[in-house]
Amino acid sequence: MPAKGKHRRPKSHGFARSIAVAGVGGVALALPLMGATGAHAAAPAAHSVAQAAVAPAAAKTYAVKDGDTLSKIADAQHVSGGWKKLYADNRSVIGGDPSVIRPGLKLTIGQQAAAPAAKSPATATQASAPKAAAATATGSGYTLPVQGASIGTAYKTAGAMWSSGYHTGVDFVVPTGTSIKAIAAGTVVSAGLDGAYGNEVVIQHADGKFSQYAHMSSLSVSSGQTVTEGRQIGLSGATGNVTGPHLHFEIRTTPSYGSDLDPAAYLREHGVSL
Q1: Is 112's pLDDT higher than 80?
Q2: What is the CATH number of domain 60-109?
Q3: Which helix (H) or strand (E) element contains residue 224?
Q4: 24, 95, 106, 121 from 64: Cα distances, Å
Q5: 3.40.640.10, 1.10.1710.10, 3.10.20.310, 2.70.70.10: CATH of 150-269
Q6: N or C: which end of the chain has fewer CB within 10 A?
Q7: How many C-beta atoms lie closer than 10 Å to residue 185's C-beta?
């Protein structure tokens, strides 16, 4: 029977594992072996850290709101390079005019936006049909001031609510924030608040006639500026003397109230039907 307390405890070694190899002159050398937690295990962790260090910041999408400008968005989103960088990254979705951004437009913040996907020949052919019809309707260089809107109060509707005794324009029923466009190329002769008309724009065209757009929530042109057909000049609203949001549209022989013509007849003369 072995004596109590005589069990020998193994001596602790400096290395958990070692291997003997032949050294110079036949002297055995003990070299440590690294365990699973050694160099081989450390390499993937270091690689992961390196990957994380160089990973670019994720891009995000911003939806344009009523009243936004590229400068305002760039400042709020801390875009390095300001509005010019924001425009350069999103030119494929904004178009050629950086001053025209419509509510709901999706802008990419942090990297260049992908260009619209190319259509297949079949899709492109199908899509061209409505565009060709629109081009025919506006072949003379004229277009509607707002798309897809129904007519509210027609021209010459009688009523005591109007100082002239009748409605001097045509009302397009649209919600606040709808894009309002110049019906034809011309020069902006006034843009700003005008009493009962609220925010309005008046444009003189090549034929000497004037178009007026009233009750807008915001304006995107200024007096003296030249515009092209279809150029956005502001957003619809309910400023001035109104009962709800809409676009009041007039055609005039002078820039002033009281020189009105039938807007529907004028547009029809230029190939555009209401």
Answers
A1: no
A2: 3.10.350.10
A3: none
A4: 77, 15, 6, 32
A5: 2.70.70.10
A6: N
A7: 16
